[in-house]
Predict the 3D structure of the following.
Amino acid sequence: YEENNPGIADNLQSNNKSITEWADKSGEFKRGQSQFRNWISKKPGSEFPPEKGRYHLYVSYACPWAHRTLIVHKLKGLEGIIPYTSVHWEMLEKGWRFATQDEEKKLAGDNVRPDPIHDSYTHLRDIYFEVDPEYKGRFTVPTLYDVKQKKIVSNESSEIIRMFYTEFDDMLPEEYAKIDLLPDKYRADIEATNEWTYNDINNGVYKSGFATSQEAYEKAVRPLFSSLDRVEAHLAERASPYYYGADITEADVRLYTTIVRFDPVYVQHFKCNIRDIRSGYPHLHRWLRKLYWDVPAFGETTVFEHIKCHYTKSHKQINPHSITPVGPVPDILPMDQEVPAAAAAIRSTNQP
């Protein structure tokens, strides 16, 4: 399959279309394709060789697709090699915008700031038009930018993270270079898991939330929860802390960015409310919290202020008054705390 990453379903700004127009006549949400698909490579003669400080990563803390790249960036110790900037959580008619200097001091999250490469740029779209003045596609995060050549390397998250896995290893200390998020022994399993996880869960929440007919909504939301049930069963069968064994893999990275947003946003905003994670999926809930609380690359790159504000204040066709719900409280539960219903279910399961 081919995966694409329009940030939080970035609008087709260049064509003056809103997100609701992504649905076809049946009311089904259709995700577009990423436009830039180049690779950073160690191979001789590569147009984009790995170099310290040459590339800049543009992300949004709100966006699950960009969040993948932030997690891998930190897991692989790339902070000193590839700097990054997060846009503001607000995405309106001109798409993602950069924070102003005044806002930089007030917003949560590291490196939420004006564009450090281009002093006069106010929106991510300015970079796309710099690269191609006739550009007609979407202005999406993540965007991996080559500062030296003034070119966009890639805006496809699934490919950016795989570049990060290996292409900079020669510059990294052994503790980071040895991290393998796509080990050979699990590669076939991970690739198979990626396909249905992307179609039914990662993109399934969007197909549910952006559907414009009851039929299209139900066509998306039921497979979403069937696949969450499938994940729950998988995690319940395994004694390991992560999706495939004792070490974090790509499967953990790609699933986490949807699940950590599920209760705070997708349950209410995208009508994904058959069950929530904290009370309906005890093994998935435990897996989520272990990553958030125990692994800094996951917890420290999760910024709930951006997540909740972006969805509820940028998707005017879903939430025209831009009211951000207060709950759930807290955004994520501590490791040793359960909601009462889940605690009772766990007790009954553990009784002989």
